[in-house]
Amino acid sequence: MCLWVILPNGKSLDKMGKEKIMQAVFLGAACASIILVALICYCILAQGLPAVYQIGISDFFTGVKWRPSNDVYGILPMILGSVYVTAGALCIGVPIGILTAVFLARFCPAKLYSILKPSVELLAGIPSVVYGFFGLMVLVPFVRDSIGGTGNSLLTAALLLGIMILPTTITVTEAALRAVPQSYYEGALALGADHVRSVFYIVVPAARNGILAAIILGIGRAVGETMAVMMVAGNQARMPQGLLEGGRTLTTNIVIEMGYAVDMHRDALLATAAVLFIFILLINLSFTYFKEKAVNNG
Amino acid sequence: MVSFYKKYGCKPCSILLMVAVWLASCLTILSLSFLLVYVLAQGLPYIDTNILDIKYTTQNLSLIPALVNTILMVVLALGLATPLGIFAAIYLVEYAKNRNMIVNVVGVTADTLAGIPSIIYGLFGMLFFVSFLKMGFSLLAGSCTVGIMILPLIIRTTEEALRSVPISYREGSYGLGAGKLRTIFVVVLPAAVPGILAGIILSIGRIVGESAALLYTAGTVAALPENIFSSVRTLAVHMYVLASEGLHMEQAAATAVVLLVIVLFINQAAIRLAGKLMKGNQNG
């Protein structure tokens, strides 16, 4: 079935055609991810934002009450819930994560490293429902018995998220630390600084952009986490009353009520998703910015 | 002792920092091992013949249908995302001129896709696949959604694997008279297989562990599907439903063990393969 026409440049038309067709197929596949991002943006934003106008921008963003049965939709409690939980998770996860990364990159004996590194990768692979289950069975009783409250609280969610963002923070920070030229470290040693000082005063500051990128990635994970938070946070849709009280985040608000929401209520949930989506896009943008900066000036 | 001081310093500040570093690492490793041991200890006693029954009833709460659904979901999602992801990576590495518009834009969009939380994917799947394309809560809608979710992972790992194939392979192939297409499929792709496989295995791990994106796309019916338009629940969703009902914690724990074992096994396989690829490149 081959069409053996020899072109002036010595190639057969059939072969040229096949090459061209496949190149177009590859190009199409490459454009698929662009189309998909556009489609996701369109679906979430186009369905969500009109509801924001309908509810009223200030009512929606600064309203302190979420009462779908009375058609009152204010998502400030959820925004604050997300902010509190994420901030708490960062307070726990970032210091431990960065110090562990420093340990892995600069202090760890080779033998220990071959155990620690795979363990951190394991931590990254555990599904969020399993984390949620662990939180429900261990952290909730722990917080209830040793700190107070019912246990289903913002603090518990922050603790759990703090553990969950560890692997991301550790992996990205470690890569950033390893990218710092060895000569920086050696220069510090030659000037009389000891190992610890050289690492903490020279290597760590030199890797600051990479570390910032790691923290931002951690924020993204904490803001976007749904199932694990839902299982431990209590989920009351009201203004956060304190760390030991229950609260609700943007993500859990969507997943809890989407199952039975109709009409305006459903649109308000989609608007919540649109807000979450915009947050995430901003976080992604700043992550890309710091990552590029880290690549460009070390 | 003297060498220890020389290496780690004897100033209080240095000692403090070093203690902090060790402490943090211990905390990380302790929380991981505690989590693993706890889930295993809770769940292992409850893995019995009841829970491994072929049919789900409210008496035995079997996880077998969910396990089968998970496998089907993985196969379908990979069937959709793997060709797309690999072809996209081929375009980026083999065809696009260095650093042109498309490479940059695809790179940014792939990063964006990778950063979108799974609940947003779930909503998108619900709006687009379930409602707009009228697939309903189904295996198909679920696998399309998670297929999009793993796309960036496959593009990125394949891209890396293709870039790590030495340029001399391609030149050798051209030198022997092969065309571009033949060079890619016969020479470059086989050399990149371990890296690509590692990416695919990692994506399997993500699909198996996914719950938020599937809740409103694949639904929660705990039975074997009749066709691809049947609503199904995967293992992770199954576990979530059991744990959130609060009545069947033992079975939830048993499911957690199965889930954990599968995911850990999969991740280990991916890490081994990636290591093999690195070694292969050093030797070659």
Describe the structure in your own words.
The complex is a heterodimer of chains A (298) and B (284). Chain A is an all-alpha fold and 298 residues long. Chain A has a single domain, classed as MetI-like fold (Orthogonal Bundle). In chain A, 77% of the residues lie in helices and 1% in strands. Chain A has a two-stranded antiparallel sheet. In chain A, helix 3 packs across helix 9 and helix 5 packs across helix 6. Chain B folds into 2 domains: 45 residues; 220 residues, MetI-like (MetI-like fold, Orthogonal Bundle), CATH 1.10.3720.10. The longest helix of chain B is centred in the C-terminal third of the chain and has 35 residues. Chains A and B meet through helix 1, helix 3, helix 4, helix 5 and helix 6 of A and helix 1, helix 2, helix 3, helix 4 and helix 5 of B.
Key phrases:
heterodimer; A: 298 residues; mainly alpha; MetI-like fold; 12 helices; 2 strands; 77% helix; B: 284 residues; 11 helices
Layout of helices and strands:
The complex is a heterodimer of chains A (298) and B (284).
Chain A: H1 13-55, H2 57-62, E1 66-67, E2 72-73, H3 76-107, H4 110-125, H5 128-146, H6 154-178, H7 182-190, H8 195-206, H9 208-224, H10 227-232, H11 250-257, H12 263-297
Antiparallel strand pairs in A: 1-2
Helix pairs in contact in A: 1-12, 3-6, 3-9, 4-6, 5-6, 6-9, 7-8, 9-12, 11-12
Chain B: H1 2-8, H2 12-43, H3 64-95, H4 101-115, H5 118-132, H6 139-163, H7 167-175, H8 180-209, H9 212-215, H10 235-245, H11 249-283
Helix pairs in contact in B: 2-11, 3-6, 3-8, 3-10, 4-6, 5-6, 6-8, 7-8, 8-11, 10-11
Summarize, please.
Chain A is mostly helical.
CATH topology of the largest domain in chain B, anyone?
MetI-like fold
Pick out the low-confidence regions of chain B: none
What is the terminal separation of chain A in angstroms?
57 Å
CATH superfamily assignment of the largest domain in chain B? MetI-like
Question: Structural class, judged by helices and strands of chain B?
Answer: mainly alpha
The second-level CATH architecture of chain A is Orthogonal Bundle
On the 0 to 100 scale, the average pLDDT of chain A is 87
From N to C, what is the helix and strand string of chain B?
Answer: HHHHHHHHHHH
What is the correct CATH architecture of the largest domain in chain B? Answer: Orthogonal Bundle
- The end-to-end span of chain B amounts to 44 Å
Total helical elements of chain A: 12
Please provide the count of β strands of chain B. Answer: 0
The major pleated sheet of chain A works out as: 2 strands, antiparallel
Helicity range of chain B: over 70%
The amount of helix of chain A comes to: over 70%
Order of helices and strands of chain A: HHEEHHHHHHHHHH
Structural class based on helices, strands and sheet pairing of chain A: mainly alpha
